[in-house]
Specification:
215 residues, alpha/beta, 26% strand, single chain, 9-stranded mixed sheet, 7 helices
């Protein structure tokens, strides 16, 4: 189903593409993805990455599927605008990062958490009951950032895969793959995944990291 060109490496469960998400997402088949789980870069100069998600992901998502993205606090109003009429807003999650150091903003705010916006395509089915709207980060892999300067903890990925993936053949997409946390966790949980990363250096880091847990 997924295109052959730009593939960087594959496992039995997943495919990593090396290239620009804008170009590669347009080649993916319609209604082929069950969960979009991603962490776009935060600096304002990369705001277009949210626009790519709003413009290209709705076509790829199956009815009832979810898109979850970590969003910089400053960007929330503009992200909500670009997703208007593209997908249905469902909720906002708190990624609690009380542990470790916290950035202090010039406006006098010490940032203790990160927002995760949840969108769905059409109606979402509560097949796994209630889901708590806080992901408490207890490990330090997102603090040490061994693989990427914007690396997040594996815990947020584990949380949403466990709550929102209902079958082993469901496909998880991360269009901003970075060092491969989504693919790494998906492999550990024996789930199918597709990733896109524009930087060949991070593609290689993700490849080596994921191959450590391939079953």
């Amino acid at each position: 189903l997924f295109p052959k060109n730009n593939r960087y490496f594959e496992t039995n469960n997943g495919i990593l593409y090396c290239g620009d998400a804008k170009d590669i997402l347009q080649q993916f088949p319609s209604e082929s993805v069950d969960l979009v789980l991603t962490d776009p870069p935060y600096p304002k100069k990369y705001f277009y990455t949210y626009e790519y998600l709003a413009n290209y992901c709705p076509r790829l998502m199956r009815n009832g599927s979810s898109l979850l993205m970590i969003v910089g606090h400053y960007a929330i109003p503009d992200v909500v605008k670009i997703f208007n009429k593209k997908l249905k807003y469902r909720w906002i999650f708190c990624m609690n990062q009380e542990k470790g150091n916290h950035p202090r903003m010039s406006m006098g705010i010490e940032v203790m958490w990160k927002p995760i916006l949840w969108y769905v395509k059409k109606a979402f089915s509560n097949r796994k009951g209630f889901i708590k709207d806080m992901v408490k980060i207890t490990k330090n892999d997102g603090i040490k950032k061994k693989y990427h300067k914007w690396q997040q903890s594996e815990e947020w990925v584990e949380f949403f895969i466990s709550k929102l993936i209902f079958a082993e053949n469901n496909i998880i997409l991360d269009p901003y793959f970075g060092s491969g946390t989504v693919g790494f966790v998906a492999e550990k949980l024996n789930r199918r995944w597709v990733g896109i990363e524009i930087n060949p250096e991070y593609c290689e880091i993700a490849k080596k990291r994921i191959l450590e847990v391939v079953k």
